[in-house]
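Researcher: Going back to the complex we discussed earlier. I've cleaned up the inputs and rechecked each line, so this should be the final set. Can you rerun the prediction on the complete assembly and write out the structure?
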Amino acid sequence: MMDDHIFYDCATAPSPRRARIFIAEKGLEVPTIQIDLRSGEQLGEAFRAVNPRCTVPALKLPDGTVLGDNASIARYLEEIRPKPALMGITPVEKARIAEWNAIAEFDGLLAMAETVRNSLKGMKGRALTGPKNYDQIPALAERGRARVAHFFETADRRLNEAPYLGGDHYSIADITAFVVVEFAAWVKLSPDESQSALIEWHQALAARPSAKV
Ligand SMILES: N[C@@H](CCC(=O)N[C@@H](CS)C(=O)NCC(=O)O)C(=O)O
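Model: Rerun complete. Updated structure for the full complex:
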């Protein structure tokens, strides 16, 4: 239990879910405050004082320091709780996991966010996160769908050569890609039935206790 930390979450949103799964895989529990993204709580003065980028997840440390991104939260937790390693052990493993986490983030998660944020009615005027408002561009939603499909192909090919995206061990790269596959259902996208390596990997990850958080 990390009683002296505070985790800022939104139970329904994909990005904080990445951090929640990471925390669960580390066997940690952190007191949590829910931020209601639907009502715009992230843009209000109180949360802006916590994270001026107006996004969740964020993690407040005992000295008041706030980590305002999945990247910093994961890095910090890996340092203070090295086991089980979720970001690799050997130099090459660490590098390969960082590479696949970046692929899952840029080609998967951001493509998905592009699709969702540029098409859902509830996101009108909020096509990007953060304190500034941006209009939706429908063409980006279409392009995003194509990019997500391409990411599924890339991930399936990789999972035909290794059990996990980063190699032999479950890692942060799997967490990011798992959230992409789950998030895809929001816009009725899913791996093709021919992508059996990706589908089996997803089923195995969905059976882990951390998938329930
Ligand atoms: N790079 C950030 C992205 C975080 C992000 O996009 N969070 C979304 C929820 S999934 C958010 O806070 N949205 C606020 C909004 O839509 O205004 C991270 O992974 O930490």
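Model: Worth noting: The helical segments are 14-25, 45-50, 70-80, 91-117, 138-161, 172-184, 196-206.
Researcher: Good, that matches what I expected from the previous run.
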